[in-house]
Amino acid sequence: MVKAWFLSKDFGKKDEVNFCEEELEIASLDDLTKLGIHYYQVPVGDRKSLQKLLNTNGYEIRDVVTISRDKLPNYDEMTQRYYSEHLHPNEEIRYIIDGCGYFDVRNKDERWIRMLGEPGDLLVLPAGIYHRFRVTVDDWIQLMRLFRGGTVWSAHDRNEATEQMEPRREYVQKYIAAH
To answer: What is the CATH number of the domain that holds 128?
Structure first.
């Protein structure tokens, strides 16, 4: 089960992301579902179950990315980019193979919900949702990026123009205005 909680403030440095679980305001799977987020647990190494899920959802294209200082070229620039608030015109689908990372999403009240992605977690963020990503203090994650055929990965930082993008307007109508 994905661990998720509301952030009480916007954390800036990696060493500020440690927390005491008793103090957290937990976000439920229902909170995530209302935002259009889908979560699956597929044990790492269970290729048959993973392939079935990929086939069922039409995820035809994939690659594996390792985010760590010694593996990712332009590490500082790229991790800053991942952590800037942005949206994608298509779903963002990530399967965690090793390590851990934080996926932050905005709810309808503009509060951040932080999800801890751990090995075996597969998260699907809908097109048009504002989000950001960072590795944990361990500074290591290996994940599989999944795409439907013909999808081109592009990120758009949050600004007035992104509010007018068709995927954002559709997202707001379906998940924000409806609740």
So the answer is: 2.60.120.10
